[in-house]
Amino acid sequence: MSLETVTDIVPERSQLETRRWPHRDRRRKVAQIDTQTAAGRRIRELRKLYETEMAAAGIKLSVLRKVQVDTAAAATVVAETARRRYLEEGVGKLSDLVAAERHAAQALKRLGLLSVDRPSSRHEDGSDALRNHIAARYRKPEAVR
Length: 145
Fold this sequence. Notes:
The protein is mainly alpha-helical.
């Protein structure tokens, strides 16, 4: 066996280092949400919904805005879970439920998204829709001459 054949068989050290398998990072991130749970899937669904609504409204999604979207989605899921557990199982206190609902509503308000439960009572021009509707519907007919 000659020296040339041995060097051809054994790869150089630099070639060995490039062949290493990439290691998977197994550390959990602080804000990582487990999407295999129902709550995690709901958070992902709400996050996507809020981001599309904001994009449709012309609001640019910065990094800080995305953090606010994540916070709003998580707060909404916590409030939904608390409401379900309180109503179905009687678990928890009503004051905790109200606080969770309030925090979720505040997070949505910070994003500038309107809640489905409370539609806006004002038109785009700022007029009061309810007052105009009542005035138009119950206007007293003028006297016939």
